[in-house]
Please model this.
Amino acid sequence: MSGNRIEELIDEVQAAFDYRPDEIETGLDTDEADVLQLRKSCRLLAGAESLLEAGYYTIVIETSFVAIERVVEFKLLEGGVEPRDLPGTHPGVYTEAAKRGILSERVASNLRDLWRNHRAKTYYQDGLAARGRAEKLFALASETHAFVLNQSTKRHDCICK
Model:
């Protein structure tokens, strides 16, 4: 593959993102920003579960962290935060969740620490993904999803099975 082909593909990808797609992922066709984040969390958890069974532990770890963030963002949006005002950092999502009473300060602090110490290390550095780690993090993501969802008046919008 040449550098020219990479440049062509970059242009094609950019063009693909420049318009509203026709074939939207199942469950994500909504105009509500909060519901979209909730359903992204649902889909991420479903994908993580499937990939866990297939032994793709690195992606399960990554996806589980993102699923937690999406469900917290759902609740922030449901609580009146504008999409443009969502925290711009991963740890910032947990900080804001504690400020708004979605998560306890202890839980938010522990999630920030997990993200800084283990997600970043597994993804960027020398941390090794392993089944036990992926299973534990997936369980945490699933439980966090359920906990946050139970605080919502939009539980019916969840598409988890």
In short: Helices lie at 3-17, 33-54, 57-78, 90-99, 105-124, 131-149. The chain has one domain: 27-157.
